[in-house]
Amino acid sequence: MRITVAGAGIIGLSCAYRLAGAGHEVTVVAAAGPGESTSAVAGGVLYPPVRRPDKRIVRWTAETLAVLREQEAPGVRFRRGRVLLAPGEPEPQWLPAMIDPTRPDGHLEFTTALVDTPVYLDWLLAQVVSLGVRVEYRSLTSLSGLGPVVNAAGLGAGRLAGDGSMVPIGGQVVHLSDPGLPEFVVDETGPGVTYVIPHGDHVVCGGTVEPGRGDVEPNPGVTADIVRRCRELVPALAGARVLRSVVGLRPFRPVVRLERSGEVVHCYGHGGSGITLAWGCAADVVELFRAG
To answer: What is stated as this protein's family in its record (predicted)?
Structure first.
């Protein structure tokens, strides 16, 4: 079957890889390359940071972890880390999907994948092309006339589907030099979330949650606040150099849409969890086409 995948972020490329591996003739169409996608700005720690009443989350997360362990791809390292929880916060439903999870007083500990997303996306694009997938960079205004298609266009997916429930959630992060941090730390005890995710040569520090944000220009005041919060959380960052600030617009929907409607399989609305859910969702996309 000839299938078009709309989108070249982590969701679109994962779907293209799975579909090509299943024997389909695949073309990826996107307005820009994966390096310009929201995926490239992600912190890259693999666990679902957004609490959603969706039982599929655990299965998708476990599948993505299994794929990343098998791939041994550049930009992916498995590290242990901590998630600090607010008092009385229940154990999240996804915790069993993590590697060797425990819950000492006040926080979670587990091993998971830390993904340097620009590096991994470059590798994944090369893998997709090696499978014979064509990649075209052009804007889509409609899905009609494309034949069988996967709508994985991130924020653009809502417009292509006529889905008004999709909204951008702005997220600013700061990259600091990595002093050799051995673990990631996420603090969910405050009104926002503070996280420190080391990738060897840099640390992704965040962050912000800004519903409805439409621009990607970093705010210097927000940069200073993120650096302050992260240095308080991890004092070893006190002397780390500020390398850059970047902003991404997470494609948020109250529930991930993964379903078939005629010739279109919709796969969007992952918010900030695209890297966590990508390979599990891509497996479901293949099954939806197989089911006919």
So the answer is: Belongs to the DAMOX/DASOX family.
- Listed as own residue / partner, the contacts of 15-18 with beta carbons closer than 8 Å and 24 or more positions apart are 15/150, 15/152, 15/267, 15/281, 15/282, 15/285, 15/286, 16/128, 16/133, 16/150, 17/124, 17/127, 17/128, 17/131, 17/133, 17/282, 18/279, 18/282, 18/283, 18/285, 18/286
Asked whether residue 261 is marked as a ligand-binding residue, the answer is no
pLDDT category, 9, cuts 50, 70, 90? very high
39 marked as binding residue: yes
Task: HSE, CB side, 13 Å, CA atoms: give it for residue 221.
Answer: 0
Rounded-to-integer distance, Cα 231 and Cα 13, Å? 35
CA-nearest of 61, 74, 86, 272 to 173 is: 272
Output the average pLDDT for the chain.
95
Stated pTM of the model: 0.95
Strands (E), 52-156: 76-84, 99-102, 107-115, 134-137, 149-151
47 known ligand binder: no
267 and 195 Cβ atoms separated by less than 8 Å? no
Residue 275 marked as a ligand binder: yes
Predicted confidence (pLDDT) at residue 93 exceeds the cutoff of 90: no
Task: Assess contact for 231 and 237: CB atoms under 8 A.
Answer: yes
Q: What are phi and psi of 211, to 5 degrees?
A: -60, 135
> Would you say 246 and 153 are in contact if contact means Cβ atoms under 8 Å apart?
no
The response to whether 195 counts as a known ligand-binding position is yes
Asked whether the predicted pLDDT for residue 53 surpasses 90, the reply is no
* 223 has binding-site annotation: no
Is 272 known as a binding-site position?
yes
Report yes or no: 15 and 282 within 8 Å, Cβ to Cβ: yes
CA pair distance 207, 245, nearest whole angstrom: 11
What is the pLDDT, as a whole number, of residue 86?
86
